[in-house]
Recover the amino acids of this structure.
């Protein structure tokens, strides 16, 4: 059946028009905005976007049958459709021409990869307003010392303000999903909020310590860096678990370890 939801693509269509309008209104489209819609499905968000003040709307839909329906229904000089797997596209190349705003009901099976791909392109994205699993929303907004605080919390909060706008009942979708949902907004900082010395190192360190979140950081980091007795070489209390440190504390630790790594390398070179 054309337009029927397909499990292989984790399709759960939004069926509540009032909710769709609320999502678009939460985004607050402005005249001239360039909007990227991820997973338009049957076009419930698309229709409200086209009736808003937004400028060009680029939609990415993996399902060729839905893509054909969307082209027929919303053929418009403002509406551009890409029939492709979102994760297969070079978005750094596609988005570098402007300041984009992102919206969508994300496929739940690949929500995290999509969000991290978008974060890699943050210099060209103003904000993201998307539907995600409530569990993902809780992890992105997690606070230090809580169960939900982890890798997504730190990496996104280091570069953006993350807000849960509202929660959505399962009955707003077809087929009904097995999880609860939330609409979130991620607004990337135009000026860096934290002085991260090395982005790649910071990201790898955060992943390393939270992958063993129940361990004291001294054990994890000594193994990860291959440097014994780290306690006496940095100011941060490494007897703590990573969840005890806020984003600022983890940035400071990353910078300390970078400085230590450089000083040890310089000492070996001079020796």
């Amino acid at each position: 059946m054309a337009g029927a939801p397909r499990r292989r693509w984790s399709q759960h269509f939004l069926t509540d028009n009032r909710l769709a309008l609320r999502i678009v209104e939460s985004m607050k489209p402005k005249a001239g905005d360039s909007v990227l819609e991820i997973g338009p499905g049957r076009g419930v968000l698309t229709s409200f976007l086209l009736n808003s003040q937004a400028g060009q709307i680029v939609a990415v839909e993996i399902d060729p049958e839905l893509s054909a329906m969307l082209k027929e229904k919303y053929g418009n000089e403002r509406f551009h459709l890409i029939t492709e797997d979102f994760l297969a596209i070079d978005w750094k190349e596609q988005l570098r021409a402007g300041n984009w705003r992102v919206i969508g009901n994300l496929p739940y099976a690949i929500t995290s990869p999509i969000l991290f791909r978008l974060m890699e392109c943050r210099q060209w994205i103003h904000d993201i307003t998307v539907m995600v699993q409530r569990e993902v929303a809780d992890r992105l907004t997690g606070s230090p010392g809580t169960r939900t605080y982890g890798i997504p919390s730190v990496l996104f909060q280091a570069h953006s303000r993350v807000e849960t706008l509202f929660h959505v009942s399962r009955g707003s979708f077809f087929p009904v999903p097995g999880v609860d949902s939330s609409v979130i907004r991620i607004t990337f900082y135009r000026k860096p909020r934290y002085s991260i010395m090395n982005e790649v190192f910071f990201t790898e360190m955060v992943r390393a310590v939270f992958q063993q979140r129940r361990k004291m950081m001294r054990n994890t980091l000594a193994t990860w860096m291959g440097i014994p007795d780290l306690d006496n070489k940095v100011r941060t209390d490494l007897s703590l678990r990573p969840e005890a440190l806020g984003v600022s504390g983890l940035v400071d630790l990353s910078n300390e370890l970078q400085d230590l790594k450089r000083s040890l390398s310089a000492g070996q070179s001079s020796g």
The beta strands are 13-14, 34-38, 57-61, 79-83, 100-105, 125-133, 160-168, 173-174, 181-188. The first strand starts at residue 13 and ends at 14.
